[in-house]
Amino acid sequence: MRPIRLAAFAFSAFLTAGAVSAAPSDCHLTKVAELAVRLDGGRPVVEGTLNGQPIRVAVSTGSYKTILSEAAARRLGLEVTPLPMAHHVITPGRGVREIGSAPVQSLSIGGWQAENLTMEVVPIHFGKDVDLSLGQDIFSQADVELDLAHDTIRFFHPQGCDDVPLAYWADTYAEATMQYAQNERRRFSNRVPVRLNGHEFLARLSTGTVYSTLSDTIAHQAGVYEGNPGVTTLGMVGPSDHEKYPLSVGTFDSFTIGDETVSNVKLRFTRFNPDFISDVGRQVWGLILGMDFIRSHRIYIANSQDKLYFTNVSRPVFDTQSPALQTPPPQTPAPQTAPGEKTAANP
């Protein structure tokens, strides 16, 4: 069987599901797919099939690639071939993880189907009963709308929309420009500049992370330390075979992403890994924007423009009250306009 990259199939097999318009009139968004997701442990999952057998798929915008777990490959009876050492993954605190590949006859996720492809197999646990993680090799091929307040993810192909705001659902919106430390043709994550107490660095948007978390390096540069008055400790975190670090909650004067600024914001912070670069710059990401932030916003990831468009739909923006992953996400009241949002033309 001829090996084919998963990304080569991704949107050629989607059926066109309709179109919406964004001003001006020559800008059209063709909806090529829509996924109805449900939250499991605070993370979005969707049902699918692999070689006709049911699988559970984690939707993870923070994952660089779509990968299958080694346990799922065994359960599904796939023949896994180890890849050369260059393909191994080194994770701080977890050692070297070997990557393999397996031929797959058919894969179906939501309304998407593909046949005769080769998938990477990694000995990683994605979550309870989750077999596959859907990553950036799929998401980067289209514009993606995260409407997770309504448990929906939509994929669009824009036409004639180069300079058009794409928050088609709203008259007001916030906007941020995405940046990439890697080759722009290989987008491993959605990264956006943010500011915390005036310090600028990159944040990564990740549906695979329940709670937004800041690097302690960034927190310290913003003047917030463990043990400071008003700083609370939720517990000690870290890989089971590595040193543990405190997970704390601190209050910061201001947090800004694009046109949206939140004052007196509380954020979790901890040590990301021992090798985190302390000299904060454009090439370093120091904040994971997790599902608490994503659910409190409706977000349009305009890969076609290297921009994010978003509207606030609930408060607080970050959840610092729920240390357990099983805690249900906050309810989402009626949409509201966040300070600093722009006015857009009607869709």
UniProtKB/TrEMBL annotation:
Keywords noted in UniProt: Signal
Record CDD domains: retropepsin_like_bacteria
InterPro entries reported in the protein's UniProt record: Peptidase_aspartic_dom_sf (IPR021109), Retropepsin-like_bacterial (IPR034122)
Signal peptide positions (record): 1-22
The keyword Transmembrane helix appears for this protein: no
Keyword Signal: yes
Domain of life according to the entry: Bacteria
Stated name of the protein: Aspartyl protease
Region feature (Disordered): 320-347
